[in-house]
Amino acid sequence: MDQTSSENDEAAGAGARPNPDIEGAEREVGVGPWEGPWPEDDRFDPEFLRHGDRRNVIDPYRYWSHEAIVADLDAKRHGFHVAIENWQHDFNIGTVVRTANAFLAQEVHIIGKKRWNRRGAMVTDKYQHIRHHATVDEFLAWANTAGVVVLGIDLFPDSVPLETYPLPERCVLVFGQEGPGLSDPIRRAAHATLSIAQFGSTRSINAGVAAGIAMHSWVRQHAAPR
Ligand SMILES: C[S@@+](CC[C@H](N)C(=O)[O-])C[C@H]1O[C@@H](n2cnc3c(N)ncnc32)[C@H](O)[C@@H]1O
Q: Domain named tRNA/rRNA methyltransferase SpoU type: which ranges (predicted)?
């Protein structure tokens, strides 16, 4: 797991500034120092109990140590992975990581360049397993060994509609980058390529948005709240 972002970044919303034009925007996020009898639970972090917890985490994880939160997430992770090609420093990766965290993906895979812009991730990358593959072959070898079905997500003439496709429980949803889209080697290796229906004039939607829609399709089929 990549741990390069600091707790301070997280508390500050990764550089976000409160907007005084939005009602309540200056309200502090999170909780202050613990009040009442000191809790026994060893998932709690004494520093957060003493000083408060302003991290970008859901309320049930308040005051938990970082390790305890990741261990809890790891015990519940879903069967899908996401992958995105990064040959020219794709600016959508932060969004993909944040959404993968929200929908509890097993892992995010970055294919190509290792560096990516963390700003859009809002420090969610600290809680998300991220694996780098320098080449498509390396990525495909991992998918084969892991027994995960590779599904390309792009608007090709032979793509099938994501809206009606039964997504396998264990799969990796692969996204291309702005401009070139999904690369030929991924397209050839994919079990299927899936398209998201569009109705307007644009040729495509943003890759981060496409990733959110595809992950939510998996959630609707396998993990939707009953
Ligand atoms: C902006 S698109 C790439 C440009 C696109 N090849 C074109 O001709 O305009 C970047 C990535 O977003 C995803 N994407 C965008 N729109 C999509 C759609 N309608 N269906 C499926 N994937 C889409 C795909 O993964 C694609 O590789």
A: 80-216
